C-alpha cells in the first residue's frame, strides 16, 4: 500500500537488506506513518510553493530522494525541513536545478542537439574552457557508469550522489559564467549545449529514481 501511494507499480522486485532503524522527524515526530508523512510534506509545500502546479511532483521528490540518498547500511533519518532545502542534498534541489536549465534554454529561443557536443569541441579547439565548464564536462562521461553501478549494486544512493554533484557544478558554472550574454557566439552556443546536456542528464537520472523532473518550481 505504501509503495502504491508513492507511485510504485506492482512489478517483480528484489528485497535489499538495510540498516534496521529509520528515524522520522516530521516536526520532531518519531515513527510517522506514510499517510501522515505525505500530509506533513504536502502542508509544508502548500505554504512554501503556493501556486506551483508541480506540488505533487515536488512532494514525491522530497520523500523518495531523501529515502534513496542513504547507503543501505546507514540509518535513515528523515527531517522535513532538511528534505525541502533548495540548496541541499535533496530532491527539490535537483528539480530546481533542472528547472533553472530549462529556463535558460527557453530564454535562448533555440533547440539544441546535445549529440553535437563532442564534435563542437573538435571543431572549436581554440576555445579556452573555464574550470567551471571543465568540471561539468568531466561528469558527463561518468553517467552511464554510475547508472550501471547503482543498478547492479542495488545502491540508488550512488545515483543520488552523482546528480547532486552535477547540480553543484552546474550551479557554480551558472553563477560564474554568462551563458545567454556571452560575448563570443561560439562560447554562447557551447554553454547552451552544456546546459542542455545537464538538463537531459538530470531528467534521465530523476526518472531512474522514480521522480519527475519539473520545468518550473
TrEMBL record:
One of the entry's Gene Ontology molecular-function terms is:
ATP binding
> For this UniProt entry, which residues form the secretion signal?
none
Q: Where is the DALR anticodon binding domain?
A: 94-217
Catalytic activity line of the entry = tRNA(Arg) + L-arginine + ATP = L-arginyl-tRNA(Arg) + AMP + diphosphate
Swiss-Prot/TrEMBL keywords: Aminoacyl-tRNA synthetase, ATP-binding, Ligase, Nucleotide-binding, Protein biosynthesis
Single Gene Ontology BP annotation: arginyl-tRNA aminoacylation
The record's top EC class is ligase
Pfam families named among the record's database cross-references: DALR_1
Q: What is its EC number?
A: 6.1.1.19
> Family, per the entry?
Belongs to the class-I aminoacyl-tRNA synthetase family.
Protein's name in the database: arginine--tRNA ligase
To which species is this protein native?
A: candidate division WWE3 bacterium GW2011_GWC2_44_9
